[in-house]
Every structure is written in C-alpha cells, then in structure tokens.
Records
---
Amino acid sequence: MWIAISLPRFAEQVTVKASRIYATPGQWLDPGSALLDLTVDMSVGALRDCPPVSACRIVMREGAWLRALPFGPGDEVPADVSVALLSTEADEPEAAPGRDARVTIATILHHADWWTQE
C-alpha cells in the first residue's frame, strides 16, 4: 500500500521550509527514524505567544519504504502537497496513497545547529 505524509494547514502568512533531510528515496525507514526537519516561520502577521520561528522534526511511527521526497534542504514546502510518498512493500507498483502515514511531528524549542547555515 502507498501512504503519504501531509502537513497540517497553517495560516496563509506562515512559511514552511525543509531544513534537513535524513532519508533518500529507496531507503527503508524503521519506526523512530527521522525523515526531515522543517522550519516554520510565523514572523509575518499577528503577534503570537510563541517564538516566530519554530523547528519541527517528522519522525516515523511505522516502517515503510521512502519512494519520493520532492523537497530538498532550503526548499519551501507549499500547503496541500504531500511531503513524502512511501510504500509498505519495496516493489509495490505505483498507486495513489491509500492513507496517511503514521508519524510524529515534534517541535524543537532550540537546537544550536539549526541557527547556523551549512
């Protein structure tokens, strides 16, 4: 079965960028594997009771084969687009995703490496 990872819809002023990628297409991801890090910039628009820039990590909660990851580090991730396509079998013929993948999205309050550009 093909499965997808989709992001929740953010406000229009929010910019989401891929900051770090941990996997490549064709790779098996175990539960607990980090897939990618995102930077969520909420600095445009209304004031909030949280930092204007947040860091998030998408972590797998189930095993799957990564089939497609259409973004690279620094790329903006538009709303309503699958962040990744995965399959439960390595040789599964391409098909529309049957459901969303089981993932955890962890917000990281501060990580020194993320504040410097590589």
---
Amino acid sequence: MREGFVMTKKVVDFWACQDEVTKAYQDKRVLLLGQGKSGKPNVMTIGWGSWGIIWKRPVFTVLVRPSRYTYPMLEETGEFSVNVLPPGKEEIAKFCGSNSGRSVDKFAAQGLTPISGRVISIPIVQECIINVECRIIYKSDLLPQALNGPIRAEIYGESQDLHRIFIGEIVSCLRG
C-alpha cells in the first residue's frame, strides 16, 4: 500500500464491479483521471472502455484522442485511474466531458477531491463509488485503414484525430 493512502475505501475484486461499471458507462458516469509530472490531475469523461483478461492479467482498456488535455498525462506517468460517479451525478460527468482541463480546474469547479491511490502514484476521486487503478502495459494508435468504414465515418468523419488505445493492468479496485 502506498504511503499517504487513506483507507476510506474497501479493496474489492475487480470482477465484483463489472456490472456496475458497465451500467455507469450507459448512464455516462465514468471519469478517467490522468496526472502528468507537473502533479496537476485532470478528469475527463469517457464513454467507452472495456475490461477483461489479456496476457494473464486483469486489464482496463481506454481510448483517448491525442488532442485531449489528459493524453500527455497518460504518456508521462504511464498510469491512470477509472472512477465511477454515483447515480444522480451525471451532471458532473457532463461538465467534465464538455470542459477542458486546459482552461478550468474540474476538481474545484465540481467539488471533486483527488486523493492518493492505493497502489499507483496518481490520484483517484474520493467522491466516486468505484476506483480502478491501472498501470499502462500497452498502447497503440488506431489505424484508419484497419477501422471498419461505417464506424470510422460515424465516429471520426474526416477527422484525423483518432484515439490511442491504452491497456492498463488493473493493480487495485476500490469501492466506497
């Protein structure tokens, strides 16, 4: 356990949270937290992601566009946390998904509290009911030519700002 971690959350098996995280995606209540070497954390809303087993490890896969403020943070530290807001807090996720950390401190604006993670060096969100701590073990850019044509047209149109896939090994899952 990391020094500075406050045990306000219960360690749980990540499979025990799978249905709740899936529901939270549907309700638009999932936040990705990154923190660069500057030490300033940022949260962004994510509408996609998956988890499972790859290379005999529990993993959480997220996709982030290079244009996003959080993108270089993932590159710098190699860690991220996935944080699930409680039901009824969708407005927080809406705010975090429509405002950039370049221009606003989303934590201050939405009354969110970054706290020390249990294992990783970057924070988790205190107010969230599930926190998944991940270390990046693989990353790769989407290849336009390999992407299904209708999906490419629907999601990206003419944009060249395709996502990078980050696969993070789940090193801790917390509830509270």
